Amino acid sequence: MPQPKRPTVPATFDANDRLRWVEQMARLMDSHFRLPGTRFRFGLDPLLGLLPVVGDLTSLAVSGALVMTMMRHGASGAVVVRMAINILLDAVIGSIPLLGNLFDFAFKANNRNVALLRRHYAEGKHQGSGKGLVLLLLLFLLVVFGLVAWGGIALARWLWNYFEAAPVLST
Fold this sequence. Notes:
Layout: H1 17-30, E1 33-34, E2 41-42, H2 44-48, H3 54-72, H4 77-94, H5 99-106, H6 109-122, H7 131-165
Antiparallel strand pairs: 1-2
Helix pairs in contact: 1-3, 1-6, 3-4, 3-6, 4-5, 4-6
């Protein structure tokens, strides 16, 4: 019986067009521009972070797409977890006004994730897959968001009942 063909993973990071694209996008998001007269580099991520909510969500979506692409090209579960932690730190701390903007200029999650995958490739461990781990992480996030939504509804009901039962002061 013929064996189903599995997609082959290139032996080197640079041999794959998708992974080179990931590296270019990570550079664009984290270190594309240089502050004149210095060695300090920054990308679109901290600039997008200046736009409340929309900028942070856009950066999070791009980072997520990069990790999904890396995951499809051999990142193991352990590497995907480290990448997710980098993105989570970037998203959570980056969403804090002012402090988060400064953090975004210094912490370059996408560049860190590409470096993790490069190291993973250099060690020859790029045959793994983090799909199960990502599904588990998504399920966990879904449960957390569900609990937050339930808590918000419960709090709104309690506040509604509290203010409905409280006597209104009239002058």
